[in-house]
Amino acid sequence: MSAKKSFKNLEWIIKIITLALLLFALSSPVIIDKKNPLNRDGKDIILAIDASGSMNASGFMKKDDVFDFESKDVNKERLSRFEITKLIATNFIKKRTGDNVGVVVYGDFAFIASPITYEKEIVSDMLGYLGEGVAGQNTAIGDAIHMSIRAFRYSKAKTKIIILLTDGEHNSGEMSPRDATALAKKEGIKIYTIGIGNKGEADEALLKEIAKESGGEFFSATSAGELQKVYSKIDELESSKIKNRDYALKDYYYWILLLVAFALLLFLLSREVRR
What we know:
Distance between the termini: 16 Å
Order of helices and strands: HEEHEEHHEHEHEHEH
Radius of gyration: 29 Å
Helix content: 40-55%
């Protein structure tokens, strides 16, 4: 008799649990993945890198430069400007943990080497495959800016930035740097310009104008150590919320509650049938 009474009480407990599960399932419990890359705060950044013939020059690494290359067996002194730029840019990319990054390479023309993405390893790998002269021997700064703007086509990030690096003067391409800068300004894209190499090699007046007109800043670097400091300074930029589609990844768990409730209902129904 006591056993039947105890089981009767258990049935009531099961019924209450089942009802609670059904009510909780109706509320549609959800867990938002805050750690997912798509939920991060950050910017959309394009690195526009000069790959013209002059970037093949060596001697950019000075004796007093302090720089930790990932590859310990490279001959640092014999690395070209382009190779050193790639190494420093790769370190920069990996540090931008909350940002989406893409790469535009330019010479006689410009092309998107890597579209804007959160997958930093893919961008770094693609950058590693590139070599000097891949886009020709000249320097199309206007086309580089224009192609970078096109790379932002599907971006809805609040903050969009182009970091344009060159060691030369604009002497090629279809679009003038000033027209491209005006277009970037219209799109709300900020351009940071970096002139590298010996004094007078890069067109600093033009680079300063591009940066000023777009709300960015101009930097110069005559060595690898200085270039690393430039990227470190840019790395301190304030973050903003990326809103490129619905980035809040949601895991719905109502189906688990319904499954448990259904199992309990089957159990109670089987008890009724046996009676």
